[in-house]
Structure formats: structure tokens, C-alpha cells
Amino acid sequence: MKRIFLPSYSPELNPAERVFLEIRRFVEGLVYSSLAEKKAVVEQWLLDFASDVERVQRLCGWDWIKENLCLT
User: How far is it, in rounded angstroms, from Cα 17 to Cα 67?
Assistant: First the structure.
């Protein structure tokens, strides 16, 4: 088992927080006819996001993660 030393600054410990921020930035401030419509918009955003590898790496690819996944 490989030991990974995590940085002490907490936002880097949870990369998903940056993804949630981007989702909120995209969907908030708009009026939806239903919760299902808003959910569909979020799901489409996530599909588009997942298919854009460079964008995922920009949002979630901190050095400590890339080094431990051998992505550098």
C-alpha cells in the first residue's frame, strides 16, 4: 500500500467541491419549470464535463493528485 501525504489546506482534499461550484455557477440564477428540468440540465452538464478530460484535470488535477496517480 502506498502512503499518500495530503496537503494541509482543505479545499485540495476534496476536488469535488470545485465541480459543485461550477455546477452551481451554471444552473443557479435561472428559472426552471420543474425540479426534473433542473436535474436534467445538471445531468447534461455532468456528461459534458466528464467528456472533457482537460477541463476535469484543470478543476481537479492538483499536483499531489497527479503525482500519486502517475499523471505527471
Answer: 20
pTM for this entry: 0.63
Q: How many CB atoms lie within 10 A of CB 2?
A: 4
Domain total in the chain: 1
**23 contact partners, CB below 8 Å, separation of at least 6:** 42, 45, 46
Domain enclosing residue 46, as ranges: 33-72
| Residue 65 within a domain | yes
Burial class (CB in 10 A: 0-12, 13-18, 19+), 29: exposed
d(C-alpha 6, C-alpha 68), whole Å:
10
pLDDT tens across the length of the chain (72 residues):
778 776 666 666 677 788 888 899 999 999 999 999 999 999 999 999 989 988 887 887 777 777 777 655
